[in-house]
């Protein structure tokens, strides 16, 4: 006498494929939901920090702190806060602020990539109305443009 099994224990391949497909879809959605805000936070952090540094350098120049001009030199992955009429890369008093990848500074239209605030007045050396730069997140494609006028006022972010 042979017994016929009427009930088998286990999963079929089609059931496993359906469960795996659902898991992959959920993982993809979760990744998209959590990674996009992080890219925006990185960009917003650099923009906020740079705006504060621009205002701080202008304030130092206006108050006569140190009796000199103050400025910011821009490069793709960093900007440098400096004192004096021109940027000197060997000055030990320079303060470097790194802009971590994938965020970068692009489209710099400032003279010599420098924004210099004049001692006493806090005005810049911008003579064409306004100049600026763009902060871009290269992985997400989002960007924010800084437009700065002669008086050192940030017109647009």
Explain what the structure shows:
The chain has one helix at 13-63, and strands at residues 70-75, 78-83, 95-98, 103-106, 114-117, 130-137, 143-149, 154-156. It has one domain (37-156): 3-Layer(bab) Sandwich (minor pseudopilin epsh fold), CATH 3.55.40. The longest helix has 51 residues, at 13-63. A hairpin with a 5-residue loop joins strand 6 and strand 7 (143-149). The chain is rod-shaped and about 105 Å long. The chain has a 4-stranded antiparallel β-sheet with strand order 3-2-1-5, covered by helices on one side. Strands 4-6-7-8 form a 4-stranded antiparallel β-sheet. It is an alpha+beta fold and 157 residues long. It has 1 helix and 8 strands, in the order αββββββββ. The model has no long low-confidence stretch (mean pLDDT 86).
Percent in helix: 25-40%
Helix tally? 1
Order of helices and strands: HEEEEEEEE
Q: Remind me, CATH topology?
A: minor pseudopilin epsh fold
Detail the poorly predicted runs: none
CATH classification, class level = Alpha Beta
- Shape verdict: rod-shaped
Q: Give the domain tally.
A: 1
Major beta sheet, specifics? 4 strands, antiparallel
Oligomer: single chain
Query: What is the CA-atom radius of gyration, in angstroms?
Result: 27 Å
The order of strands across the largest sheet is 3-2-1-5
How many strand elements?
A: 8
CATH architecture, by name, is: 3-Layer(bab) Sandwich
Structural class: alpha+beta
Tell me the strand percentage band: 25-35%
The CATH homologous superfamily is called minor pseudopilin epsh domain
Task: Please report the distance between the alpha carbons of the first and last residues.
Answer: 85 Å
**Overall pLDDT level:** 86
């Amino acid at each position: 006498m042979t017994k016929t099994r009427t009930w088998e224990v286990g999963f079929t391949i089609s059931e496993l494929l359906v469960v795996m497909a659902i898991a992959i879809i959920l993982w993809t959605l979760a990744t998209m939901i959590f990674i996009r805000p992080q890219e925006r936070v990185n960009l917003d952090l650099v923009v906020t920090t740079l705006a504060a540094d621009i205002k701080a350098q202008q304030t130092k120049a206006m108050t006569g702190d140190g009796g000199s001009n103050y400025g910011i030199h821009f490069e793709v992955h960093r900007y440098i806060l400096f004192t004096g009429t021109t940027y000197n890369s060997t000055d030990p008093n320079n303060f470097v602020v790194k802009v971590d990848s994938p965020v970068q500074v692009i489209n710099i239209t400032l003279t010599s990539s420098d924004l210099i605030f004049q001692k006493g007045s806090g005005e810049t050396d911008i003579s064409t109305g306004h100049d600026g730069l763009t902060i871009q997140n290269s992985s997400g494609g989002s960007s924010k443009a800084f437009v700065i006028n002669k008086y050192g006022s940030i017109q647009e972010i």
